Structures are given as C-alpha cells and as structure tokens.
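Structure tokens please, single chain.
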Amino acid sequence: MIRLENIKLQRGPQILLNDASLTLHPKQKAGFIGANGAGKSSLFALLRGQLNLDGGELYIPKEWRIAHMRQEITDQSRLAIDYVLDGDTRLRSILKQLTEAESKHEGAQLAHLHTELENADGYTAEARARRLLSGLGFSNEEMEKPIKHFSGGWQMRLNLAQALMCPSDLLLLDEPTNHLDLDAIIWLESWLKSYQGTLVLISHDRDFLDSVVDHIIHLEQQKLTLYTGGYSAFERTRAERLAQQQQAYEKQQAQRAHMESFISRFKAKATKARQAQSRIKALERLEELAPAHVDSPFNFSFRESDKISSTLLGLREAVLGYSDKTVLSNVKLHVVPGARIGLLGPNGAGKSTLIKTLAGELLLLSGQLTQGENLAVGYFAQHQLEALDDQASPLLHLQRIAPTEREQTLRNFLGGFDFKGDRCDEVITNFSGGEKARLALALIAWQKPNLLLLDEPTNHLDLEMRHALTMALQEFSGAVLVVSHDRHLLKSTTDEFLLVANGKVDSFEGDLDDYARWLIDYRALQQPLNTKQSTDDKVDKKAQRQQAASLRQQLAPYKKEADKLEKTLETLQNQLVVIEEKLADSNLYEASQKENLRQLLEQQANLKNQQATAEESWLIALEQLESLQQQLSAID
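Here you go.
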C-alpha cells in the first residue's frame, strides 16, 4: 500500500502540504483533485521519487513498478510504435540482450532469454502497442511515422500510450483526457477499468472520474482528504461536510465572542483574574475552523444578443472539406434560436470541419450556406488561444473590442472569469492554457452572440470553471452547437445530437450511453481493414514462429480445462436428472417423507449452484481458448 504520514512538502516559500496523511490500498483507483497550483503535480513527483519530503514519512513498497505519463518527448525522430514499446523497459532490455547473444552465438543464453521474453509477453508486445495506439485514435499508417510528424496534442497521446504500455503496480496519470476526443476517452475508460494495479489520476472530467475511480483524494488547505466513491459522491459528501463545518464554525465564533467578551470585561478585576486567564488559555486552545469557502471564483454569463433571426444558420446539399479532399457530403442542417446540438462522431470524421464551415473559416466546396439577417456567432476553438496577443493584458483584449465602454465595467466583467486585480493588467505571455481559454471565452461572452459554436471548450479548464461554463450555457437563450469530450457538459447543455461519421451528418437517436455502444460496433467494423493493412507491414518471421509456438503451449491447458469442465457439467446434469425424477414422485410429498424431501431439495440446490459455477468457468475457458485459436490462425 501507499502510506503518507504527517508529511510536509514545500516548493520554495510555498507550503503545499502540511501534516497531511493518506493511505491507499493495492488496486484502489483514486481521482486526485484540487485547485490549480495546490500541489497535485508536486505530489506526483514525490511519489515518483523526484522530490524529497520536508517532513513526515512516505512508504511505497520497494518492489512496486511505477508508471507515469510523461509531459514531453526528447527524441522526435523515433517512430510512434517504437516510442510506445519503449514504455516496457524490461522488454527493451531483454531484446537488447537477445541481439548481443545472437551476435555472439551464445545458445544457452539465447534459450534463457527467449524464456524471459515469453514471460514478459514479448511476443505479443507489438500487437498490444498497436491496440493501445488504435484505441487512442492512431491509424496503422500513423504508427509507423516519426514523432515529429504529430502535433503537441497527439504527442501527448503517445506519452499516454507509452505509460499504459509499461507494466506497473502504480499508474500515475496527470490530465490524461486533456488532448483526447470523446471516443478515445471512452476507450481509455474501458482500459483503466480493467487495469489491475493501483491508479491515481488527476482529472477535471467529472464523468470520467465517476466511471473510472472508486475514491477521490481532495487536496485543500494543505491537507489530503480521501472520499469513497466517484466525483459525484465526493460532491455530495463534501457538501454535507461543509454544511456541518459551517455550523461548527458559527457555533465556535459565538463561543469565541462570549469568551472574548468575558475576558475584556473581567481580566482587569482581581476577583475575576483567574477565570479570565482560564478563558484566555481556552481561547488559545480552541481549534481554528475555517469558514466554508465554497463559492466558485467564476461567475459569468453570455451577454444576450439585441436581435435575433427566425433561422440563424442553414446548410443545403452542402459538400464540406478542403480543396483537395471532401470530408462531408449532402449535409443538411437547420439551426434555429434555442437549438441545443451536440456533435458526436469518431476522431477525424469531420466534426471540426463542420464547425469551421459554419463559423466561416472554411468555404463550402458546393451547396448552399444560409445565414440569418441578425446572426451573431460566438466561435471558440483551441487554435484561437494561439491568436490571442501575448503582449496584451486581459483588460486590453476586452478594450479593443469595447473601446467606448467604462474601464470599471470591463474589469467587473473580467472578474467573473477570475481575472481580478493585477491579473487583469498582466500581459498574457505567461498565462496557462486554462487562463487563455477563460480569456477567449470572456471575449466571446462580451460580444452578445446568438449562436455559439464551441469546439472542445473545456480543454484546460478546471472543474470549477467547467461548472461555471455549464451554468452559463444553461442560462444562454441563443442556440448552441458544441463538440466536447466532457460528457457532463453535453448532457447538461444539449437536447439533441448529430452524428458525424462515414462522410455524413445524421440525427442520432439516443443518449451518450447509446453512442458508446455505437462506437464499439463502429470499431468492430473498422477492424478487418486495420488487420488487412497490418499484414502488409514488415513482419519478423522468426518472432512469428516463436509467438505461434508460445500460443500452442498456452492452448493446451485451456483445452484440457474446457474438456474437464465439460465432463463435470455432464456429471452434474446426470445427477440433477436423477434427483428431479425422485422429486416427481408424488409420494415424496407426504408428511412422513418431509425430511427426505428436504434433503433432496437441498441436494438439488447444491447441484444447481455447482452447475452454474462450472458453466461460468467452462465459458471463460472456451472464450480464452477461442481467443488464442484466433490469434494462432492470424499468425499461421
């Protein structure tokens, strides 16, 4: 287990943790939350041995293997598939030793290393790496490309795949969903649910946390508090705790006021001096309870448009894409005031292409785009963060689009996005991604849009800001069309979905759970194409033969187990038939046969339980056997 006892952690003059304690048991999955800058990443660095404690004790089993998600890549020339395989350092070490042994023709060492390779699942390593990359949205062709080919967001996906590839007892993931789309997040959820080690992940995605974790670690006021359940359970429990804390605080303040009143009235009187000194000491011992500061630093809304059209935006027989590539065909879309539309679809299907076209960033290849007379679009996309002026302050950004507005009015508005005081006047060159995203949203909110086109608006936003954005969108009276991997935002702010897939845009009848099932079917249909493409890749024939031999060895025990369980089931069924024949005898139900009937019924129940258990084990063995046979067939 992981145990932190009364630890103190300090970075420069800032104390991040003070007298904090936490215990995590093996195989627990915990979400780690707290305000930005509170020390979450520093605690990760401590767990990885990169920081030293300033006080207290930290215990992690020495034999535990720790995997974490890197935040940078040094060798940009490495191929994507090789970079992910690098995550299994033991495998890389064995392969290096194999190469050396082969060059020296050391037969005994080669035999030993091939056994080591099999024990490390080395023969299936590349297939596992390719499954990870496929789940995270990479095509087979992209897996063979150098890392420098990919954008920063896709490089972070490679870092995530490498962390998942690493065999580990403790997996530390810092914002793993930040650069993922919805289908990749759904895949990652499934992978993490089956992970057998201890998981600690930092995330601002409440639905992701609810789906994956069974505990929440909350870092607040330099302390660590462990809550049971996912994020929704944490919210309820903490709300109850804060309500109790507020009551305790108010009671304590009343007690403190009474003590101070007594002290001020009587400490100068000799007859009351002893009682006054007693009250002073009691006041010093009185535990300091902080008031329940639960108010979010964010409080904003989208300013309402002065005018609106009956139809805001429309597409007819539209072909969307780029000059050399058609992405979507025959698109029909009618956006009216009050519409709340969420766009769903696999990665690369054309969701962003559709939004860019509606925003006017892409021209139609053919067809008709109709805009309402009073259309006012508020468009948010990640590339707009790069378009902000790094040498301007939040206030100057807003003054440029509202030059006649009073400065105090602009400052008050920016305050709702937590740009307050000096922060309002600082140039944004050193602002975080989250701060720049908040500024971009503030600029949109000021301009009175009646149609919001939002492409992944929650990237880089923390939980409090995501909640504030959700509330603002719920109050917004205009139309909303949004692409987001944040399912809570989608569920809370949209009332219809469009599915962008296979070159088309269609209405999707169902909810996000239905979409998750649709994705599974969609991937299954894509699998034959991937398999065919992968067969064209260069294959190590020697490794194939070794893998086939290994699979045949693995087949034997499963086949033996399946045959044994099948015979057991046959025996149990025969015994049940005998008992059921006895139970069919009407004489058995006479009063004199009461004990005999009880015994037969008990035997029948026991046999049925044995039958159910054996049948489940038999089906598992058959499933594993079938899986291995399919792998063997694919190799042969």
